Amino acid sequence: MQNLILVTGGAGFIGSNFVLRWMKATKQPVVNLDKLTYAGNLQNLAGIAGNERHIFIKEDINNADAIKRVFAEHRPIAVLHFAAESHVDRSIHGPADFIETNINGTFTLLEEVRAYWSGLNSDEQKRFRFLHVSTDEVYGSLNPGDAAFTEERKYSPNSPYSASKAASDHLVRAYLHTYGLPTLITNCSNNYGAYQFPEKLIPLMILNAIDGKRLPVYGDGKNVRDWLYVEDHCDALALVLERGRVGETYNIGGWNERTNLEVVNAVCSILDELRPTSRPHVDLIEFVKDRPGHDRRYAIDATKIANELGWKPKETFESGIRKTVEWYLANEEWVKGVITGEYHNWVSLQYVNR
Ligand code: NAD
Ligand code: DAU
Q1: To the nearest 5 percent, what fractions of the chain are helix, strand and coil?
Q2: Does the structure show a pLDDT above 90 at 354?
Q3: In 3D, which of 302, 312, 222 has the Cα closest to residue 265?
Q4: What is the CB < 6 Å shell around ligand 2?
Q5: How far apart (Å, rounded) are the C-alpha atoms in residues 152 and 156?
Q6: What does each C-alpha distance from 112 to 55, 117, 156 come to in angstroms?
Q7: Residue ranges per structural domain of the chain
Q8: Is residue 78 helix, strand or coil?
């Protein structure tokens, strides 16, 4: 098929939002390659079930032979690499999967991309893009009052997750400089929105609050994150793919710094309005033992992507968080599907006796 793009990790939170938006906005086919770990969910893609332009392949990015066959058969014009282990707390309990997927997997994928790209004619080579989707966590932690992260910020990752993402960013950079592979890197702040697995702060708090369960806030609740509505991130990625300068890094962020406590309070007050209970939902907040090595503050300076590509987020935090709470309330079946035995095991490991 013409103009086909390959997405890795397209059954996860951001990847599935990207695929759904891409299918709606373009006529281009998508091969969606995903291992379907606990975080991958075909229900996220139910809206495009049966659409012939979406080809789903259950596969591990570490399987070089399989990736080779996918490139030979589908001949993508671009790769968007989302696939990763993405949860910091899981990386603290068990870093091995993070090394395996985020570092070794990215390396395996890059090797297969390089082999495929080397065999293209020069026009095809010029047109080809490898877009690596990364995180602001590679830059480390800010103090209150420090300037937000620009693309020039030195890497200083603090968790096994962020270290593995930093390593993958460096590999991508090396393939650009050494082999001339036309790569782009994006480093984005915290996403939220539909289809986010409820191990992450916002969906965990929404679902716990709906169920009348405690809301476990780590430490003093004053850690700051810079929140971006997932659809804004997806639009930024499509723009970087289309018009980003090869070899560049683009920081993507929402200009929406909030303490964790502010985020949880916002969720609670929306639920007080939409699902009132006898006591306000904030009464469920409990301060629990802090995350080891917990980064204090992230903030993205998204000036470069605004100036070069004209991107800025459409949602404010207030509009995005309301849409998100409404989505979780309206999608009980999806929620039931992700609250599995594996999820209960994770919740016990992470929160019981904390
Ligand atoms: P996610 O955990 O929701 O989804 C990850 C997807 O990758 C899942 O569908 C999973 O099945 C798949 N996957 C995992 N290992 C794989 C493997 N070995 N082979 C093939 N597929 C595999 O993650 P997310 O939150 O959607 O994040 C997507 C990407 O964006 C990640 O690279 C992450 O580092 C980055 N990112 C996330 C955020 C955020 O706030 N969630 C912010 C910035 C950057
Ligand atoms: O900054 C981008 C990163 O954002 C992405 O690269 C990661 O993939 C994504 O998971 C996210 O990382 P965080 O660690 O910031 O997200 P998380 O939702 O796990 O936590 C957000 C904040 O909330 C963080 O300060 C820890 C805190 N927290 C989290 C949970 C799950 C709590 O206080 N209680 C909780 O139960």
Answers
A1: 50, 15, 35
A2: no
A3: 222
A4: 86-88, 135-137, 189-190, 200-201, 204, 216-218, 223, 225, 260, 291, 298
A5: 12
A6: 19, 8, 29
A7: 5-189+230-253+297-314
A8: strand
DSSP string, 40-73: --GGGGGGGTT-TTEEEEE--TT-HHHHHHHHHH
pLDDT digits 0-9 by tens, 104-158? 999 999 999 999 999 999 999 999 999 999 999 999 999 999 999 999 999 999 9
Task: Provide φ and ψ at 189, rounded to 5°.
Answer: -85, -175
Distance 121 CA to ligand 1 centre (A): 32
pLDDT reported for residue 81? 99
Q: Is 137 a catalytic residue?
A: yes
Predicted TM-score (pTM) above 0.90: yes
Confidence of residue 353 (pLDDT cuts 50, 70, 90): confident
- CATH superfamily for domain 5-189+230-253+297-314: NAD(P)-binding Rossmann-like Domain (3.40.50.720)
pLDDT for 300-315, tens place per residue?
999 999 999 999 999 9
**Is 195 noted as a catalytic residue in this protein?**
no
Residue nearest to atom 1 of ligand 1 (CA): 12
Pairing verdict, β 215-218 and 285-288: parallel
User: Of all residues in the chain, what percent carry a pLDDT higher than 70?
Assistant: 100
Q: Which two tokens stand for residue 105?
A: 């997997």
CA nearest neighbour of 6 among 25, 27, 33 = 33
